[in-house]
Inverse folding.
């Protein structure tokens, strides 16, 4: 269902591969805890079409960027009297760097999934603190919004793909690296399935940098990669 459950599942397979009779954490289903959502929007059970997209997004470039802890601390120090997580500042930095690099019209709506929508101008020209606050506001509303969606009281979000949209995943605390199939734990983890149609960023642990974060991004086209990296490395603004 989520990253934590996936890690637990893979860990159990690893234990079976290493000769365990059963996994160290037995599965607990609790299926009755999830309310049944009405499917009125698709009464005939017809296939739901995939999100619309553009072939222009096929040229997105993948880049591995290791962010050391002192740079994360520097970003956090920019926020006065504002508590935040490592995730908050990393996403804010990534989002702003990407939009500044591609020089999008400031009036164009920019989406960050999980469920944030604002104008490109607010992300590009606003203060770093304001961008972090946008992310924190969205996080605070996630639980109630999900419950409303399950109960049928909230419509599904727009699934249209666009170049200014970014899907972010954070694996830094899930510990996929601990999965052992019999030959030791992993040095690092990445997504095997590449989705070139969708601008994405995955945060993982760095293989050799304690408390650092590895950003695996596929969110800009090749011609904007140099400027994207320059923006990511600029900690003065």
């Amino acid at each position: 269902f989520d990253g934590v459950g996936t890690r637990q599942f893979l860990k159990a397979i690893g234990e079976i591969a290493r000769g365990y009779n059963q996994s160290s954490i037995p599965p607990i289903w609790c299926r009755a805890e999830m309310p049944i959502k009405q499917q009125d929007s698709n009464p005939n059970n017809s296939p739901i079409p995939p999100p619309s997209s553009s072939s222009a997004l096929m040229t997105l470039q993948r880049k591995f960027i290791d962010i050391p802890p002192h740079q994360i601390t520097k970003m956090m120090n920019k926020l006065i009297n504002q508590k935040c997580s490592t995730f908050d500042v990393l996403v804010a930095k990534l989002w702003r760097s990407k939009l500044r690099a591609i020089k999008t019209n400031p009036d164009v709506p920019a989406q960050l999934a999980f469920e944030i929508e604002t104008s490109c101008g607010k992300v590009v020209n606003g203060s770093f603190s304001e961008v972090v606050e946008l992310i924190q506001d969205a996080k605070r509303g996630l639980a109630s919004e999900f419950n409303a969606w399950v109960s049928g009281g909230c419509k599904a979000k727009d699934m249209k793909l666009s170049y200014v949209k970014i899907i972010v995943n954070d694996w830094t605390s899930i510990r996929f690296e601990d999965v052992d199939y019999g030959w030791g734990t992993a040095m690092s983890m990445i997504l095997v399935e590449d989705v070139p149609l969708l601008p994405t960023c995955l945060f993982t642990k760095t293989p050799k940098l304690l408390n650092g974060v590895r950003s695996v991004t596929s969110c800009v086209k090749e011609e904007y990669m140099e400027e994207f990296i320059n923006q990511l490395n600029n900690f003065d603004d």
About this structure: The mean pLDDT is 81.
